[in-house]
Amino acid sequence: MVQYRMDGEREDQRTPLSEDYLREHTVGELRSLSGPICVVDYDPEWPQSFEREAERIRKSLGGRALRLEHVGSTSVPELPAKPIIDIVLVVAESDDEGRYVPALEAAGYCLRVREPDWYGHRLLKGPGNSANLHVFSSGCPEIELMVRFRDWLRTNKDDRERYARTKRALAEREWKYTQNYADAKTAVIAEIMSRALRAATT
């Protein structure tokens, strides 16, 4: 469902999301994984894949796409990742799905997650499962946290390697849902994010 959640102030961001929660907020059928996660070495083509998807989104939405950011592990050189491009799309109001979802669906995206109580987050899957498009409203604090986490990993080798080791170890385990794997990374993400935030204030 969600790659990671940065807001450590909320209790539900520090505990795994329940299956009931996943079912309630998934649009359509909740599909189980029931196996390991496919994590591969960094691919230098991933930035170009992001640019292609970003152009598809811009053509679909025009000025309604206020901001697009490549986030997640595919946005960090040298970091292993699931081969799916994570993108943040900022719109004026994510709850107003009629303003952007039909246009994105016409471009091959499919709405899969609706979380009105978590920053109004929506997740759309790209054509052929090529991308995870995370939609937030303008001014949402989660956007800057996701970008800061990305930028920190791009410049901090020790934390990048720490995160890579964690991802590879967790990917080898069996997971019922991909979200369970994402939840298992919460502790190391919080640890790394705390250093990134401290560095920003010094």
Q: Can you give a write-up of this model?
A:
- The protein is α+β, with helices and mostly antiparallel strands.
- The chain contains seven helices and five strands; from the N terminus they run H-H-E-E-H-E-E-E-H-H-H-H.
- The chain has a single domain (11-200), classed as Beta Polymerase, domain 2 (2-Layer Sandwich), CATH 3.30.460.
- It has helices at 19-25, 46-61, 101-106, 141-155, 157-171, 178-184, 186-200; strands at residues 67-71, 85-91, 110-115, 121-125, 131-137.
- Strand 4 (121-125) and strand 5 form a beta hairpin.
- It starts with 18 loop residues before the first helix and ends with a helix.
- The model is unreliable at 8-13 (pLDDT under 50).
List the helices and strands and how they pair.
Elements: H1 19-25, H2 46-61, E1 67-71, E2 85-91, H3 101-106, E3 110-115, E4 121-125, E5 131-137, H4 141-155, H5 157-171, H6 178-184, H7 186-200
Parallel strand pairs: 2-5
Antiparallel strand pairs: 1-2, 3-4, 4-5
The string of secondary-structure elements, in order, is: HHEEHEEEHHHH
**Which residues form runs of ≥5 with pLDDT under 50?**
8-13
Beta-sheet strand percentage? 5-15%
Give a quick account of the main beta sheet: strands, pairing sense, barrel closure: 5 strands, mixed
Multimerization status:
single chain
- Count helical runs: 7
